[in-house]
Amino acid sequence: MFPATACRTATLDPIDAPTHVIELVERAGRYPDRTALLAPEGTFSYDDLLKVSGAAATRLLAGRDDLAGARVCYLIPPGWDHTVVQWSIWRAGGLAVPLATSHPPTELGHVLDDAQPEAVIVHPTLLGRVEAVAAERRLPVLQTPALLAEGAAALLPGVDEARPALMLYTSGTTGQPKGVVLSHANVRAQIESLSEAWGWQEDDHIILHLPLHHVHGIVNVLCSALWNGAMCEVLPRFRAVDVWERLARADATLYMAVPTVYRRLIDAWDAADPDTREAWTAGARACRLMVSGSAALPVPTLERWETLTQHRLLERYGMTEIGMGLSNPLEGERRPGYVGTPLPGVEARLVDDEEQQVEDGASGHIQIRGPAVFTEYWHRPEETNAAFTADGWFRTGDQAVVEDDAWRILGRSSVDILKTGGEKISALEIEEVLRSHDEVSDCAVVGIPDVDWGDRVCAAVVVTDQATITPEELRSFAKSRLAPYKVPKDVQLVDGLPRNAMGKVTKPAVRDLFAPEDDE
Question: How far is it, in rounded angstroms, from Cα 153 to Cα 470?
Fold first, then answer.
């Protein structure tokens, strides 16, 4: 890939234009002079985005007519470079596979092995994270300065919206992260649904510090802003004081985050002096909408945030495979502990274990159907088929109940899927890593309800007879092999794990090991 070739530049007359133009890209042409991104790299217009992504797409094509769905992985911090690379892959006809900037080389290697990309694009600051991993797999590596240098755009391919656009990795009950493939049509349906439900408009200005390897940051924030001609301001990282200072300017209209972030913002507010608190509060009140998602929002956090900012956070429910499925209303009552009703274009139902719809007021398994639902699990046809009913309903694995026309999420059907700080993770994957240590004979990972994290990741570990390893050393071992949010926060060394008559570990009993002792 990436041979030195002359650009096939062209001036596109209507008759010569590609028959299919990605609608997100086409819409950008309506707002050429508006600011698209305020990023660590600078301020950029929609016209900048179109020109640079067109030239970068030409370099990716390297003389070919179309990437034809080839996977291209990219490891780039949130910002201008990240956005342009994503658009360039799409415009060249490729399947964009964002890599998590927080993941260690071992996890990046799994994605490269599974996705089988034709190349990896990397920001120079992250080259050391992926260079050796890519070299082991003989994958070409292109750094962003070379890809995004000035240049002319070629005649780019037409891209039908049924073609794959994004592949995002999520952990399933098997413990191995799997690629969720979203088509351009899926992405468009997700954006259009949120644009209607949340009243997006071109004068909106949203602050983004969410990771850009998840649907939350990519679709809910970045793509929704760019679809509507709005401005997206990207912070290089989350720091509570930085977010408050940005809100204090009173020019942002939208803010979206996970419950853990709102808890950190509250803590920072509590630690500030009275004048600073007043300025922060006034700025936050200037927003028209604040949204919380990716994990259940504790009622005390919701109520405290409303006291500080006069904003009752809008909770919604979604997942990688469906985008957003349920949402509290933009206007009207937002009930604590509830996630509202199905979004525009989304069908949702609750079924029992025999997949028959349950009666009103009864709990059931959530199933979702509609154009926003993903296309497939990458190269996993059996798992894809198992995820859907014969008539196209996606089995989410979550349970809920509808009470007074509002949905309340009850929890996950599998005890092995945890959510911590807005991240969905697999307990089985963490267990596999811990068991790879020479002094570990067995272990069990569970989630303990936590007001800050949603699920606090905890591990009960059985060590070998001659072991000298400490809990903190085990955490360090896990940290070198897992993303930070997957590392157990509590590790207990135990003599054995509770099991049932079939020899299976009983995880409710494991949870009891980490339950706080009652005060005497």
Answer: 57
